[in-house]
Amino acid sequence: MPKIKTNRSAAKRFSFTKTGKVKHKKAYLRHLNSSKSRSRKRHLRRPGTLGKTDTERAHLLVPYK
Question: Which residue segment(s) compose the domain that 32 sits in?
Answer without folding.
Answer: 8-61
